[in-house]
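DOMAIN: structural biology
WANTED: fold as tokens
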Amino acid sequence: MRTALCDRFGIDYPIFVFTPSEKVAAAVSRAGGLGVLGCVRFNDAADLDAVLDWMDANTDGRPYGVDVVMPAKIPTEGSAVDIDKLIPAGHRDFVAKTLADLGVPPLPADEDRNDGVLGWLHSVARSHVEVALRHPIKLIANALGSPPIDVIEQVHAAGVPVAALAGSAKHALAHVRNGVDIIVAQGHEAGGHTGEIGSMVLWPEIVDAVGDTPVLAAGGIGTGRQVAAGLALGAQGVWMGSAFLTAAEYDLGVRTAAGTTVVQEAMLAATSADTVRRRIYTGKPARLLKSRWTDAWDADNAPEPLPMPLQNILVSEAHQRMSEGTDPTAVAMPVGQIVGRMNEIRPVAEIMAELVAGFEQATRRLDDIRDR
């Protein structure tokens, strides 16, 4: 499974794993891939700094990266406008009523509330980049395409390559013109922010469009056979996320008596048909696990989702309440269609080993076909 990206990053396998959990990211890196820590959950740059200190101490010297959420165009935010006041009262009333209808309990009185994941704000994302560059990171990825040119130049000056997600060949070419080093070609099947084009069509389109720029195949990858498909279509590696949400090391959310989180329980019970692509999570189209929460937003009486970042600020505490509840039918979680194969809790090392073994089996099968 070795490609040029393995030599470039000093990894054993060209498997890049995005995760909001530092424990999963570190375990991926220790297992020979490149763990990429999602930064958007960190409102305070000092908290991110502390977590990256932990990553430095727990990756056994293996490389890791970070993922930020930064639009290429700098939005108006902050001082001149109180963002919280831009959220209509009717939207707040709808969220409150929906949580009551779903039976989602309130948070404990002494628990801090998520007033909004400020990592969606441009200024906070810039602080994430500044903090990350104080650590020995090997990659900065942007979930919203190309970062601003000055940020790309800042990262390059530190000797760190930049990756950016693309849902079309047009977007991928724009990323290359902006100086992005690696394109993450994310197909429609993916969890979170994703476009309209399916992976099997998108991957070779982007590979052919960007020439020598390395491409990571993303969207619907959860087995070694799918890794082999991505490389067969011209990618130099794969970008994964959803398949590691049921990793044993995943440490975000309250554990149930069974030792899993309520979101993990919902995923374990889901099929590949149990996702929807909606704007209700962030304000931009994102694939989520289908639940009674998503059903409520699909109802005739539901308001239209707000633009980013207002929608995320609106629903942030609701997400916190549902993730700390006990009802797996009332959750909000980005996940791809590969959720239908996520049927058990397993350590990261086991998931990685199965990906490698499945890749080897798939390529041997192709060798047998070729030799007939």
Notes: Residues 207 and 234 are 6 Å apart (CA to CA). Residues 348-371 form the longest helix (24 residues).
